[in-house]
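Any chance you could type out a protein's amino acid sequence plus the matching backbone structure tokens because I've never seen that pairing?

——
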Amino acid sequence: MRSFSLHVGRLFGVEVRLHLTFLFLPLFIFWTEYNARGSASGSRDLALAGIVLACVGAHEIGHMLVARRYGLTPKAVILLPLGGVTVYDESRVEMPANPQSAWKRELRIALSGPLVNLAFAMLAAGVISAALPEAKVWQWPWFHPGNLPRSLVWANLYIAGLNLLPAYPLDCGRVLRAFFTRTSDSSVATRRAVSISHAMAMILMVAGLFSNAWLTMVGIIIFSAAQLEERAVIFQSVLDNVRLEEVMLTDFATLSPADTLEDALDKAVHSLQDDFPVVRGGDMVGVISRQRILEALRVEGNGYVQAVMNKLFEVSIRQESLASAFRKLTARNLSIIPVVEEERLVGIVTLQNLMHSMALLAESRKLRRDNA
């Protein structure tokens, strides 16, 4: 998610990120205008990209509002020029009782986005036709930086129409994937939907080379979005099926509550760890991070680890899934989880090592699947 997008803020508690394809959109608009007319306006091209961003934002808000009615809590959304990819809090998802209910839920959530765009398009067309008749809303070219009011109407119509293509993760593609889940599991259904999406993206990209460059751009966006969704499904599979004993660190440094902060910092300098279990005898009594050690030294001077360590922490057992550990880490904003066996510390899982392991496991599973 973070490899291909930039954080731009939070909206109603949901992290909002821009996919890299959105950052190239103003340059693409400038390039197409310059090739077609020999000139282009950078400010108008940027404004046109802003209109697309606003339309996509409205589209995704429509999805999230309907999703909340079904108990789906959005955590983050990645905005692309055709729509978005929303990440939901899996720990709070209530699965429908049967595949038919799941399909109906997906259909209603999927249709909400295009319906929002259609409503905005009709509203904008009425207002612009009455207030700015010279904008000529229904005159060609419909989407052009030279006529921004008209482009506002057609940007909404284009986004609504394109999301009716059966290309995952566009809205109709999501309905297609939900249809596949009626006869297969989620991972298989997603792979089938992604394969169709990749084929459609390639057709659009090739067609754009011989006709309109915008078709190529649409194909690239669909391909990129499908890749994002495929990676998300693989990561979820890793979270659900891999046990902590497969990824936990067994060779790690510990601190004692009687260690001074300067001694602790010296140990931290010679370790790759950012977080440390604090152990007294054979019992774990707290956790402390490298950053906390530094902050305490700067503010309070040298002292003892016991005075600044965090005494509230979660523990896990070897057989727990990565999904369980990840929920514990994120729910309480932790950065380390000790792994115990018969009340004995046998390993640790840190957020840093968890993300690294998830990425490697996801790539290895993808490679094995592709080779098969």
